[in-house]
């Protein structure tokens, strides 16, 4: 019934609360767990970068992509693009989860993508024969929910793939 389970994660406590459930589903159905981390790229024609100053402190800066970064904050050439850092962190994070699940005998696939999280989750599920998406939710309501929105809610509304939602333990 469940051969491929998608476990999107952003490193939040809500996402962490799903791991025991996907482990149990994987063990029960001998399913492969696809661990997905989505980097949300910056928008517009500016790129946020990180760089260390002369004292070794990290600083940020916004630069036009069409030209070489011009530093007004003491940042030197060779700045690191934040999206590259986030992608590397996502790859490391998904691999750490995979290692833990594999120690319990689960088969895993690690994936890092860039884009809108809800769109990337749905697209990945459609492209990879995913039978279930398992996601955490914060359980927000009222103004907080309306202001922050919910990737999980968007996936539930838009996905043709069944979505299991697990509320974060408070």
Automatic annotation (TrEMBL):
<protein>
    <submittedName>
        <fullName>Universal stress protein</fullName>
    </submittedName>
</protein>
<comment type="similarity">
    <text>Belongs to the universal stress protein A family.</text>
</comment>
<dbReference type="InterPro" id="IPR006015">
    <property type="entry name" value="Universal_stress_UspA"/>
</dbReference>
<dbReference type="InterPro" id="IPR006016">
    <property type="entry name" value="UspA"/>
</dbReference>
<dbReference type="Pfam" id="PF00582">
    <property type="entry name" value="Usp"/>
</dbReference>
<feature type="domain" description="UspA">
    <location>
        <begin position="1"/>
        <end position="167"/>
    </location>
</feature>
<dbReference type="InterPro" id="IPR014729">
    <property type="entry name" value="Rossmann-like_a/b/a_fold"/>
</dbReference>
């Amino acid at each position: 019934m469940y051969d491929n389970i998608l476990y999107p994660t952003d490193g939040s406590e809500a996402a962490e609360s799903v791991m025991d459930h996907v482990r149990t589903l994987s063990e029960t159905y001998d399913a492969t767990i696809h661990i997905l981390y989505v980097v949300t790229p910056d928008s517009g024609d500016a790129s946020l970068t990180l760089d260390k100053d002369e004292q070794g402190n990290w600083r940020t800066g916004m630069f036009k992509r069409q030209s070489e970064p011009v530093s007004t904050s003491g940042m030197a050439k060779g700045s690191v693009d934040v999206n590259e850092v986030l992608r590397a962190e996502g790859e490391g994070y998904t691999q750490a989860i995979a290692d833990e699940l594999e120690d319990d005998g689960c088969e895993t696939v690690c994936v890092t993508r860039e884009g809108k999280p809800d769109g990337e989750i749905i697209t990945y599920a459609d492209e990879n024969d995913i039978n279930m998406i398992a996601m955490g939710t914060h359980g927000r309501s009222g103004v907080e929910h309306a202001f922050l929105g919910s990737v999980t809610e968007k996936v539930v509304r838009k996905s043709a793939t069944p979505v299991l939602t697990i509320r974060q333990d408070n």
